[in-house]
Amino acid sequence: MIEILKAILFGIVEGITEWLPISSTGHMILLNEIVSLDVSDEFYSMFEVVIQLGAILAVVILFWNQIWPFGKKDNKEPLAKTGAGAYIKWDIFKLWFHILVSCVPAAIVGVLFDEQLEALFYNYQTVAIMLILFGVAFIVIENYHKGKKAKVNTLVGIDYKLAFWIGMFQLIAAIFPGTSRSGATIVGALLLGISRTVAAEYTFFLAIPVMFGASLLKGAKFLMNATMTSQEGVILVVGMVVAFAVSLVVIKFLMEYIKKHDFKVFGWYRIILGVIVLLCGFAGFIG
Asked: Which residues form the signal peptide (predicted)?
């Protein structure tokens, strides 16, 4: 029962931090230092990635009409006026092509260097430094853009060039835990002149192939080299279900929040948390 309660806690943290630009991986690493699950190291390495599938499902459900590229109803840009083409939403297909371009840099690095990067950078020092650096970045960028109008205010305005550069920012998060995948892509999008709302939506959609691919890769590696116990299976399912439920609430909150506020509060949170992590590490409480 204790392990189930821990799984619920991990699911809550995943559901909150996956979408807020404060680093889900960083928080999961830190949480595991404080409240570790009674599981094998191999399982936990897989768990902290595959639990994200629950969070992905929340995005799919909330934004279904904006991401499903088939159907005649509300088809703003059909491929053809009649026949099968009338059921293809070409504008959504183009969005997915752009998203795939954004996925390429992180996908290449993840497939080739996943284990090496985990061994090098998955520690409290890296998490703390990246929390602070991107916290400062949020504050500086928001101050710089204060009073200025965004150049891109719709998803349609994100072309292949912008998609590629957003993907390069996402690559930073793929290498350094504590950066935050959503944080890196939002910072990149803001620098490129994309509005907060569009930046947030795009990073939500970008998470679908990125997180699904990462989960598939981790899950496959685990099943090839280890066996999951029944307790570990329950922990995984509980974590995913809780992450899904919490993500539904957090995504709705964030989309309403950024209509009236900027991202500076998340920047200050990151800085404060990063400093606390460093102090705890120096004091020997984590590490």
From this structure: none
Angle value at C-alpha 162, between 14 and 140, nearest 5 degrees: 65
Contacts of 218 (CB under 8 A, 6+ apart): 45, 46, 49, 50
Per the CB < 8 A criterion, the answer to whether 157 and 215 are in contact is: no
Place of tokens 């260097």: 113
- What sign has the CA pseudo-torsion 97, 59, 242, 21? positive
Q: Where are the beta strands (DSSP E) in the chain?
A: none
Tell me the pTM.
0.88
Rounded to an integer, what distance in angstroms lies between the CA atom of residue 77 and that of residue 100? 20
Query: 279 to each of 9, 159, 283, how far by Cα in Å?
Result: 24, 43, 6
Classify residue 281 as exposed, middle or buried by CB count within 10 Å of its CB (0-12, 13-18, 19+): middle
pLDDT, tens digit, 9 for 90 and up, residues 69-88? 999 888 989 998 889 899 99
Tokens linked to 193: 């002149």
Q: What average pLDDT does range 116-139 have in this prediction? A: 89
Q: Which residue has the tokens 């703390």?
A: 128
Q: Where are the domains of the chain?
A: 2-283
pLDDT reading at 287 higher than 70: no
